[in-house]
Here is the input.
Amino acid sequence: MRIERIDFTDPGDRLAQWHAAHLASEESRPGFWLGLRRFTVMVERGWADNLMEAWVAEEAGHVLGGYSLHLPTRDNVHGCSLRFFVVHPGHRRRGTGSALLAHAGRRAREHGRRTIRITGPAEVAVSAFAEAAGAKLGMVDTRAALDLHAADRPALAGARAEAVRRARDYRLERWTGPTPPELVPDMVRLMEGMNDAPQDGLEIEGVRWDADRYVASEEAIRDAGLLAYTTIARHVETGEPAGYTQIHVDAEEPRGWSHQGDTTVLAAHRGHRLGLLMKIENTSWFQERDPSIRYVVTRNADSNTHMVAINELMGFRPLDRWHHWQLRL
Ligand SMILES: CC(C)(COP(=O)(O)OP(=O)(O)OC[C@H]1O[C@@H](n2cnc3c(N)ncnc32)[C@H](O)[C@@H]1OP(=O)(O)O)[C@@H](O)C(=O)NCCC(=O)NCCS
Here is the structure.
C-alpha cells in the first residue's frame, strides 16, 4: 500500500475512487449525498481559505481510502482538521485507516500543528478506532431532519405570531445566491456570531472574517453547485445587522435533501425570537421557491440548547449522532 498526494491539476481517477469510497461508506445512512463536484471543492479548497492537502492510500492502482487535511492559516493555527477520512467498507480492518491517520499526523506536525480534529458517526467501530489511536472525544452533535411534507403548519403559526410580536423592532431581508456587494460588510459582522456556538471540549478559537474571506467562501459554495437561500434580520432603528440564517440546495443531490447552513443572532440582539422567526421565514420562502426539496437536514452540538429548542419547535427530528474527536500530536 502506498499513500499518494492528489494533484488537483491532474487527479486521474484518484478523486473519483476516493469519492466512491465515501459514498459506499455513507449509502446506508439517511441524509443528503455529496456529489463529486461538491466533494471536490470541499477536499481541494474547503470553505474558508485553509491550506489544504489531500492524500489517498492505493494498492495496485486501486484507492482504498483517503483524507483531506484542512490547515487554517489566519486563526486556529495550532490545529487542523481531517475531512472525508474514510476507508472503503470492503477494505477495512487491515491497517489502512491507521496508516492514513499516522501519515496525517506527520503532515500536520510538519506544518507545526499540535492537534487534529476528526469527525465521525457515533458508531462502535469508529469510536474503537479513534480511541485506539489515542483521540479524545471533544463534542457530540446530532443531525436532525425536517420533513417539509409533514410539517405541522398550524402548530407553527402560533409560535410564528409570537415571534413576529417579539421581533417588532426588526425587519427581515433575503436573497438567493451570493450576497449583494453592498451587504457583504453586514455578513462579515454576522459571521462573527457563529463564534459563540458551543465547542465543548474542542480547542477552537473564533474564526476571523473579512470581506475577502467571506467572498471567497461564497465562491466556493457556488463552485460546489450549491444555491444559498439567505434571510437576515436588521434592527430598524439603527440599521444594524442582527442575525442571519441560510439553507443550501445542491443541484446534484438526488434524494430531495437540502442542508441548513449557519444560523446566528448577534449577542446584542438575542431574546427577540429572531432565530426562530428567521428560520421559519427562510424555510417557507425556500419551500415555495423549490418545492422539489423534501427535507432540510441540520446538525447541532447537543449542548447548543437554544438552537436545538428552535429546531424541535419547527419539527426537526433526530437522524443520527456524530462525534468530534481531538488527537493531540
Ligand atoms: C474509522 C475507519 C477509517 C477505520 O479504518 P480501518 O482501515 O478499518 O482501520 P484499521 O484497520 O487501521 O483499524 C485500527 C484499529 O481500530 C480499531 N477498529 C477499527 N475498526 C473496528 C471495528 N469495526 N470494531 C472494533 N474495533 C475497530 C481496532 O482497534 C483496530 O485495530 P485491530 O484491527 O488491530 O484490532 C473506517 O472504519 C471508516 O472509514 N469509517 C467510516 C468513515 C469515518 O467514520 N471516518 C472518521 C473516523 S474517526
The two ends are 24 Å apart (CA to CA). Residues 25, 85-87, 92-98, 118, 120-121, 125-126, 128-130, 132, 325 surround coenzyme A (CB under 6 Å).
